[in-house]
Each structure stands twice: as C-alpha cells, then as structure tokens.
Amino acid sequence: MVHRSYIAAFSFTICILALCWPVFSVRADTIYLKSGSTIEGKVSREEEDRLRIVSDTEMGIMTISVPRQDIEKVEINEGGEEIIEQCAKSLFYFQKANTYYNDKNYQQAIEAYSRVIELNPKWAEAYYNLGLAYAKSSLYEEARKNFDYALELARGVRSQTQENKRFIQRIELQLKNIP
Asked: Are 112 and 66 in a shared domain?
C-alpha cells in the first residue's frame, strides 16, 4: 500500500499539491505571520478559521493551511488564479496514481506518477511512490533511480521534521530491499 507522508516545512498543516513556479514571480500574495515569517503564494481558499495558500516550498508546490489566528496581515494581488487549477490537476493525478497502485495496476500508476512529476519535479513523495510502482513491476533499476532521487530531495529539506526523518527511513529501507 502506498504511504503518504506529510512532510512539514512550516509549523502548520501542509497538503501536497503541484504545479509550476513562474506564476508566482509577478502575482504572489504575501501572508505575514505573527511569528515574523512571511509566505509568498496565492490564496486559494478562505475558510472561517484558516486560509489555504498555494506556495512554492523547497519540497515543491504545496497548499498550506494557515490558521487565521497565526496571521498578522495579508496582501492580495490580482491574477494568478490559473495556479489553483493546476494544483487541483496535480492532486487529481497523485490520487489517481495511488488508486492504480493500490489496485495493483502498476503500469497505469507509473504513468500517473510520471505526470505528477512533470507538474512538480521537487515532490519527493511522487518519486518515492513511482519507485514503489517500478519495484512492483520488477523494474528495479528504475525503482532505484526514483528512490535515490526521492532521498536526495528529502535530505535537502532544511526543516527536518520527525515526519521527514521517518520518510527518509522509509526510502532507505526500500533501497535496501531492491534486488
């Protein structure tokens, strides 16, 4: 079964989604946190108790759920809505790939995970899951390449949370088990 690890680069909940960075370069919203930090991204949804912000992080493009109580100020800029649609598309492919994998339809899982990686080349979890699908298909060299790259991405994260450390351990275990 495919595992989802939620690797936190921030001190709040992160749901992984994907797309391309250039949209932010001109039209980013800025969210100022009470902690003194800022988040550059695009507000994708406003809820009663939180904002959901699509942002590029060192782990790829993600949707970050920020409690309103942690927010000092928000500067909203016009445009950039296409990024939200791209994020939804990426999550769709990731979930579809997980379903294929869990149904033991590994070739379709490989295709769907590959599509996710096209959308977000920094998403370690997608490479890890792609490696699992290759391993189940007895394509061990491809599995190893994807596990190695997932490991490289995961180790490159500055904020090494417990979840990220456990994810790295899972990758290392998979690498040891490849024939």
From this structure: no
Instruction: Identify the domain boundary among 36, 62, 80.
Output: 80
Distances (CA, A) of 51 to 10, 71, 73, 179: 14, 9, 12, 46
Share of the chain above pLDDT 90, in %: 41
**Total-model pTM:** 0.69
The pLDDT value given to residue 76? 82
Q: Which residues of the chain have pLDDT under 50?
A: 3-26
**pLDDT digit string, tens, across residues 1-23:** 554 433 332 222 333 333 333 33
Q: Which pLDDT does position 27 carry in this prediction? A: 57
Count the alpha carbons within 13 Å of 38 in the hemisphere toward its beta carbon. Answer: 11
Whole domain around residue 74: which residue ranges? 14-80
Find how far residue 131's CA is from the centre of its chain: 16
Considering the domain architecture, whether residues 22 and 75 belong to the same structural domain is answered as yes
CA–CA distance, 41 with 159 (Å, rounded to integer) = 19
142-164 CB burial, b ≥16 within 10 A, e <16 = bbbebbebbbebbeebeeebeeb
CB 42 within 8 A of CB 84: yes
Residue 16: which residues within 8 A CB-CB, separation 6 or more?
6, 7, 59, 60, 62, 63, 91, 94, 123, 125
